[in-house]
């Protein structure tokens, strides 16, 4: 039986941490399913780790549809979330609906889009038409050129307040999950407490309802300097399967992220 949004909601309510990993192909989807990963995110990070681009901006809808279909073929149990790529939803609700439908048809159970209160109308439009939506606030990589780099967000009272308001606006609009990326752990804890929907953190401390990591960072195969919040779980193990199981266990036990992975 496939994991559902209501399963994830219940897990969050009972304090069971949600283990999420990015995934881009069928073979890894099967491996992650067998290792007990709850949610697979077909992330637009594939532009960087699969395509070798410097940012996620060049990723197309066709790329996301292709990888979502690949993941869908490999995974029967995990809940599959697909990123809406840069330029596929920012124009407005009608454009977002057209493109979200393609990802749902390709095998996603939910779409994710970046942005806060400014995206609330678009989120509500999709949710009212039957498409579950995951929000994404804090460090939003599709805005890297506006943010001035991949930097921690929500530092200082005004910036923290903005993250809280964005999170509440997305929940109000009907978002079912919310990714918090690269914000101070104390702020992520506050957001998680104020929301009724599960938060999924990456560089957002241990108090989120779940954690997500880029698969290639977990395997230590991303070229270049990994983000502070990444951890190589393959180091010291003999197999990818074991590394992923160790990640799932560390998330479930609240041992990942540790303080050295947090802001
Ligand atoms: N392999 C990979 N892992 C990711 O987590 C990831 C991607 N790719 N591609 C899309 C975005 C880009 N992300 C990134 C990339 C780099 C940093 C980074 O190096 N941050 C520094 C600076 C922090 C600061 O000074 O504010 C760090 O030390 O973590 C953070 C997020 C997260 N996502
Ligand atoms: C890092 C996660 C949250 C993501 O959006 C991606 O992999 O694209
Ligand atoms: Mg993404």
From TrEMBL:
Please write the reaction equations for the catalytic activity of this protein: (6R)-5,10-methylene-5,6,7,8-tetrahydrofolate + 3-methyl-2-oxobutanoate + H2O = 2-dehydropantoate + (6S)-5,6,7,8-tetrahydrofolate
> What does UniProt give as GO cellular component?
cytoplasm
Catalytic residues, per the record, are 181 (proton acceptor)
> What domain of life is recorded for the organism?
Bacteria
Q: Where in the cell is it found?
A: Cytoplasm
What are its E.C. numbers? 2.1.2.11
One Pfam family from the record: Pantoate_transf
**Any GO BP:** methylation
Which residues hold 3-methyl-2-oxobutanoate? 44-45, 83, 112
Q: Which residues cross the membrane?
A: none
Q: Which UniProt keywords apply?
A: Cytoplasm, Magnesium, Metal-binding, Methyltransferase, Pantothenate biosynthesis, Transferase
To which pathway does this protein belong? Cofactor biosynthesis; (R)-pantothenate biosynthesis; (R)-pantoate from 3-methyl-2-oxobutanoate: step 1/2
- Listed GO molecular functions? 3-methyl-2-oxobutanoate hydroxymethyltransferase activity; magnesium ion binding; methyltransferase activity
Q: Which cofactor does it need?
A: Mg(2+)
User: What this chain does, per the record?
Assistant: Catalyzes the reversible reaction in which hydroxymethyl group from 5,10-methylenetetrahydrofolate is transferred onto alpha-ketoisovalerate to form ketopantoate.
According to its UniProt record, which protein family does this protein belong to? Belongs to the PanB family.
What assembly does the database describe for this protein? Homodecamer; pentamer of dimers.
**What is the protein name given in its UniProt record?**
3-methyl-2-oxobutanoate hydroxymethyltransferase
Q: Which organism is it from?
A: Sulfuricella denitrificans (strain DSM 22764 / NBRC 105220 / skB26)
Phylogenetic lineage: Bacteria, Pseudomonadati, Pseudomonadota, Betaproteobacteria, Nitrosomonadales
